[in-house]
Design a protein that fits this description.
By secondary structure, the chain is mainly alpha-helical. It has one domain (3-152). The chain contains 6 helices and no strands. The longest helix is centred in the N-terminal third of the chain and has 34 residues, at 15-48. Helix 3 runs parallel beside helix 6 (119-152). 24% of the residues are buried.
């Protein structure tokens, strides 16, 4: 072991590392809080609109499409219009919307459909979600820009 390595073991984390963690702690906290809120909303939605075995997972589909549309609006507003506090984007964009949208459940739903002999439904769900989510984020961002441009006139 070299002298600098031994010194770092005795002293613990360097002041710069401690500062870096202190600077990131609020970001981690707001992402966790937002994620909990978004995931709770998604779970409530899935309970309200359960998917029958072999059926098209409409709750997950609409959760992802709506979440992507909101992401489109949100990103335009906070990058082009509003100088948001530094924790708004991690809280709402990464936390709430990241917890609300659920592409892991999307993948599991596809696998369940294929494994249960509903490959056509799984393929339709795979393609429809991808196309609808991409269209939703693009259309929402474009519509938001158009609305904002009209308001400036």
């Amino acid at each position: 072991m070299t002298a600098p390595e031994a010194e770092s073991l005795r002293l613990g984390p360097s002041p710069s590392r401690q500062h870096a963690w202190r600077a990131q702690a609020p970001v981690v906290a707001v992402v966790a809080l937002g994620g909990a809120l978004g995931a709770t909303a998604r779970y409530a939605f899935s309970l309200a609109w359960p998917t029958p075995p072999g059926g098209f997972p409409w709750a997950t589909f609409w959760t992802n499409v709506v979440g992507c549309a909101v992401i489109g609006v949100f990103m335009v507003v906070i990058t082009e219009v509003w100088a948001a506090h530094r924790l708004v984007r991690p809280f709402f964009g990464t936390g709430v919307l990241g917890g609300f949208t659920t592409f892991s459940t999307y993948a599991v739903d596809i696998q369940k459909l294929v494994d249960s002999g509903h490959a056509r439904t799984g393929l339709a769900y795979l393609a429809a979600t991808l196309c609808a989510a991409l269209a939703a984020v693009w259309l929402a961002a474009a519509a938001t820009r158009r609305v904002l441009k009209r308001r400036q006139r």
